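Appendix B, example 12.
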Amino acid sequence: MPADEREAAPVGVDFSALYDEHPEYVARRASGSFEQAQIDIEVRLFKLPQLMRLLAPGRVLRSVLEIGCATGELIAAVPVQAGGRKVGMDISAANVAAAQARFPDIEFRCGDFRDARGEHFDVVIMSDVLEHVPDDEAFLSDAAALGDTVLVNLPLEDNWLNRNRAYGPADVSGHLRRYSLADGLALFDRAGLEVTAFAQVWIHETPTEPARRALRRERQGAEYTGAWPQRMVKHAVFATAAAVPAIGRRLFASNLFAAARKRPAT
């Protein structure tokens, strides 16, 4: 990704208001909604397993902070020891209120995570966050200072279907930039971190995709969205991706799951 694209930052954007009002999050806040059920599937079958397998086998977590927790599904699912502490932080007051109502046993806060600088956690999690912030390097570096380990889930959208996507605050998902695998790993290096484990994973190759199709069939009457011709095309595309993985991996975005820590001083 060109340096000028990487460093470009939107001016005068109220990100807290953006995510209060963003249709994706408004839908997720509705109890029993399709969108809420879908994120539950993605957390259970994709995000949580991929993040947890980056930790050393048998590691027990006593305290976990999730930055950019949105409506709280991931931090609610993270396992900690009995009596352990879980904290979720987000800049959207509406998301935090919805998270607290749904998961009352977890501590949620609205505001800047840098206000927690006097605290320390075993693990700091950021899932689908860095692509939303103007200065991803500083954000990652500051977040990693709050924990022994930082776990990151970062979408890698250098794929065919995202080639002409217009990134910025008006993006359908609010993504400010596109990353390749090399971009993602370089971000950790620029932030002063060393990566201890990572994996590049395509969600359509995991049990998540069949579960999402089953949910759409149950709630919406069809496995794919759109009119009948569109559904037929999508079915053919996914069938091709399954039959020829090399095509599927160029066609669809992947995710970088990484564990990292502050680089020791030399």
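The chain has one domain: 3-202+255-262. Residues 1-9 have pLDDT under 50 and may be disordered.
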